[in-house]
C-alpha cells in the first residue's frame, strides 16, 4: 500500500482480469523517466476498445498493470540521453499505462502536438486516427465499406475514406449512430440490427459487392464481411469488439481471390521515420480542417469503470476520454 506523497500517484490498476469492476482507482508508485523515456503528466487520456481486451485478458498483459494505450499531456521529466523533448513540451503518445496521473513514455511513442491543438483533441485523434489513416492509405486505397461506422475509429474512417473519394457504406446499430455516421461522410447506412447487410450491399453496389470492407467488429460480422467483398476485393479485419474471429481456412478466400489483412497500428509506427510520416499526415489533416473530432464524453479517471461499461454496451459514438481532476 502506498500513501499519497511525492512518490505516489493516482492510477487505475488491474490486479486480475475481468469485467469493468476490476478497474481500481488507487495510489500507485509515481514512475520516473528512465533512459530513452519522458515522463508525461496526463491531461487527457484516450479510451480505446483495446483497453477492454487488456482488461478481459483477450490480449494478455502480466498483472498487476495500469491499462490505457494513449494520452496527451506535458513533459515533466526527461530520461538520460533524451534530446528530442524537454520539460514543459506538450505531447501526445500511444503505448501503455496511460490510465494514470503520470506515464513514462519511450520517445519513439511520443510526439509534440501543435500549439493550437488541445490535449483532448490530440488524445481523441491519435490512436484511432492513425489506425484509420494507415488503413485507408496503406491497407487499401478505400473504395467502399466500413463497419461500426459511428464508433471512434468508424467516424474517422468515414471521414477519411470520403475525403479520398470513396463511396462509403457504413454499418451501425441504431438511428442516432446512422445520423452521425452520415454527418461524418458515410454515403449509405445499413442498420445491421435489423437490415440484411449482404443484401443491402448487393443492392448498393449493383450486385458486385464492396472493393474493400473494413471490419473492427470481428466475430459477429466476419462472415457478412466476407460475403460483402467483391471479386478481387479486400477485407481488413482490424478488431474484435464482438469477440475474436475464429480461425479460418485460407481456402475460403479463393472463391473470389480476396485479400485478407489483419493490421495492428504498432506495426506501422515501429520506427521514427514511419511514426513521423503517419503522425505528420494525421495532424496535417486536422490543421487543414479536413477531419472533425467527435468527443462523446470526458469521464473522471476514477470513473474508468463507467467508461468501459458504456463503450461495451454500444451506446457511445466517437471518442471517450478520461481526465484526472486534482
Ligand atoms: P468503438 O467506439 O468503435 O466501439 C465499438 C463499437 O463496435 C460499438 O460502438 C458498436 O457499434 C460495435 N459493436 C458491434 N458489435 C459489438 C458488440 N457485440 N459489443 C460491443 N460493441 C460492438 O471502439 P474503437 O473505435 O475504440 O475501436 C473499434 C475497433 O477498432 C475495435 O475492434 C478495436 O479493437 C479496433 N482497433 C484496432 C486497432 C488496430 O491496430 N488493429 C487500433 C484501434 C482500434 P454499433 O453499435 O454501431 O454496432
Automatic annotation (TrEMBL):
Coiled coil: none annotated. SMART domains: PKS_ER (SM00829). It comes from the Eukaryota. GO terms for molecular function: mRNA 3'-UTR AU-rich region binding; NADPH binding; quinone reductase (NADPH) activity. InterPro entries: ADH-like_C, ADH-like_N, ER, GroES-like_sf, NAD(P)-bd_dom_sf, QOR-like. One of its GO terms (cellular component) is cytosol. Keywords: NADP, Oxidoreductase. Residues 18-322 form the Enoyl reductase (ER) domain. This is Probable quinone oxidoreductase. It comes from Umbelopsis vinacea. The lineage of its organism: Eukaryota, Fungi, Fungi incertae sedis, Mucoromycota, Mucoromycotina.
